[in-house]
Amino acid sequence: MSITKERLHAPPSDTDVSGEVLGSLINMAGRQRMLSQRIALKAMLAFQQFDGALAIARDTLRTFADTHTVLVQGRDGLPGLFSPALREAFHGGEHVARKITDFIALASTAIDAIGRASPAAEDALKALIGSVDPLLMHLHAVTAVYEQESRRIARAQKKEQRDLIERISSIAKEAHIVSFNGQIVASRSDVTGREFAVVAGVMTGITKELEAVVNAFVKKTSDA
After folding, report:
1. Would you list the domain boundaries of the chain?
2. Comparing C-alpha atoms, which of 31, 30, 32, 37 is closest to residue 129?
3. DSSP codes joined into one string, 78-99
């Protein structure tokens, strides 16, 4: 694979993931817990022949499976598993991604059996219900990792902003010194020097505007 292709397929860096995206990911991860319980509940009601329960169970399972795909692979502006901590949470020693896939398979089997009134429906439903609580613990742990990553990235982004402000401030100060020295030199020179003084004055004005922008940005970020 070429370097260009590797960059195209590389996950985004932490600072590329916005707070809005992180909020969406946290909400999606947390919602998976509710969806997993809803799947089991509606499957149980469908087994008891409650009207509409089977259709809701199927629809909820589709949503659960689709959300899992988005969280792991990414889609529509969402980055997938963009950090080592998230990859470990899904694919590490607990094998959470595989357990989620197994749950989806169990739910699909149970719902299909119930829909066909199969003799195996009761056992399939029991297997599904028995898998919910262990899965909930894993889904809760995954959501916690998303929340931890959100806090970590927020700190990293603030540090990056502070570093940028410091670099801009340093440049502005150096430019201000240069323009001030230029005005002094120009005041001791001939007509050409006086023309240079005009340029130095303009530069001084620019550096003052730059300093004002930096100060305003510092105030805004500190108040946020």
Report:
1. 3-157, 160-223
2. 37
3. B-SS-SHHHHHHHHSTT-HHHH
Q: What pLDDT, in 10s, does the model give residues 180-211?
A: 676 666 666 555 555 666 666 666 667 677 67
- One of 1.20.1600.10, 1.20.120.1730, 3.40.50.720, 1.10.1740.10 is the CATH number of 3-157, namely 1.20.120.1730
**How far, in Å, CA of 89 to CA of 87, rounded?**
5
Q: Which residues of 71-87 are buried (b: 16+ CB within 10 A; e: fewer)?
A: bbebeeeebbbbbeebe
- What's this model's pTM, rounded to 2 decimal places? 0.72
Interatomic CA distance for residues 25 and 86, integer angstroms: 11
